[in-house]
């Protein structure tokens, strides 16, 4: 779709080239959402792809993804075999409504910044204890765990002009065993609930997304029993935290969250 109100396109080559924040500016990554609907408030695009960040870097302490790493790159990256939790990458991508044609340009950072409840890159990053490096508009930077980055449906901690630079997935989490469950009203539909579990030397972590307005990560010293998991879900996630929209009613989402959590618990027990 043409963005009729855009009058300026900036193509920075380095951080120094980034224009000063002003109203009407949007960062352009893959553009799969930006160009999918009218953007009457956007008058200037700042293309992040011209910064030419390396998409994927393997470090001793984990994996660094540039915010502009495409979902296709993520799914096809050759990665160390001991990072067993990378088996979550493709199923998370497949749980998006977006098909593999969209993965070709859609970025991980764009998915996080959009903060849709069905943002499966959010699920993935929460499940693997990812931390974001944010370039702040005042020229500084800060790090935020992904589970604290999304604060509500379509809401994040990004201030005006802040941008996600990269995502760090720690090696300890990448060595974990994982399990993923999705449910939607139709087989290829937008997620009504998307849950991921991970078990490693530090214990068990359950990530709840898509059914709730923001991600929730529940941690236990070891895989809990069925009752303990169910009680924890009730204590940590209130009925008001469940979402009602075209992809599911809150009471249904709350119910299926419990069912999928128990399936994950049994698989990782
Ligand atoms: C058919 C279809 C199906 C889709 N299905 C899903 C789905 O199931 N779940 C889902 O979550 N999304 C879905 N999307 C939306 C979108 O494709 C994905 O969320 C995608 O990952 C967005 O990435 P992008 O690089 O294309 O973002 P863009 O469209 O370039 O940007 C999206 C938003 O994020 C901001 N942004 C981008 N990068 C950064 C950054 N590094 N720092 C700060 N802000 C940034 C942009 O300014 C913009 O506001 C779908 C889209 C289509 C067209």
UniProtKB/TrEMBL annotation:
Gene3D superfamilies: 3.30.465.10
Domain of life according to the entry: Bacteria
Occurrences of domain FAD-binding PCMH-type (ranges): 1-174
InterPro entries in UniProt: Diverse_Substr_Oxidored, FAD-bd_PCMH, FAD-bd_PCMH-like_sf, FAD-bd_PCMH_sub2, Mopterin_DH_FAD-bd
Gene Ontology terms for molecular function: FAD binding; oxidoreductase activity
Entries under PANTHER family matching the protein: XANTHINE DEHYDROGENASE FAD-BINDING SUBUNIT XDHB-RELATED, XANTHINE DEHYDROGENASE SUBUNIT C-RELATED
Name this polypeptide is given: Oxidoreductase FAD-binding subunit
Annotated source species: Rhodococcus wratislaviensis (Tsukamurella wratislaviensis)
Taxonomic lineage: Bacteria, Bacillati, Actinomycetota, Actinomycetes, Mycobacteriales
């Amino acid at each position: 779709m043409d963005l009729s109100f855009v009058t300026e396109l900036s193509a920075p080559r380095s951080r120094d080239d980034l224009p000063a924040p002003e109203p009407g500016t949007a960062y352009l990554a893959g553009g799969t959402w930006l160009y999918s609907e009218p953007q009457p408030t956007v008058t200037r695009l700042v293309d992040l792809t011209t910064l030419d960040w390396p998409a994927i870097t393997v470090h001793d302490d984990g994996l660094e993804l540039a915010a502009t790493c495409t979902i296709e790159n993520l799914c096809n990256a050759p990665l160390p075999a001991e990072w067993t939790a990378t088996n979550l990458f493709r199923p998370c991508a497949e749980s998006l409504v977006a098909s593999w044609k969209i993965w070709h340009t859609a970025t991980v950072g764009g998915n996080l910044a959009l903060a849709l409840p069905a943002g499966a890159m959010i699920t993935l990053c929460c499940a693997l204890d990812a931390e974001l490096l944010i370039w702040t508009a005042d020229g500084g930077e800060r790090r935020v765990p992904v589970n604290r980055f999304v604060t509500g449906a379509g809401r994040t901690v990004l201030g005006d002009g802040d941008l996600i630079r990269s995502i760090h997935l720690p090696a300890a989490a990448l060595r974990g065993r994982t399990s993923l469950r999705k449910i939607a009203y139709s087989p290829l539909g937008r997620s009504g609930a998307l849950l991921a579990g991970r078990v490693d030397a530090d214990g068990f972590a359950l990530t709840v997304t898509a059914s709730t307005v923001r991600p929730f990560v529940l941690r236990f010293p070891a895989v809990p029993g069925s009752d303990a998991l169910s009680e924890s879900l009730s204590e940590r996630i209130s009925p008001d935290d469940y979402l009602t929209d075209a992809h599911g009613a809150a009471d249904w989402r709350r119910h299926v969250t419990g069912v999928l959590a128990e399936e994950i618990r049994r698989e990782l027990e």
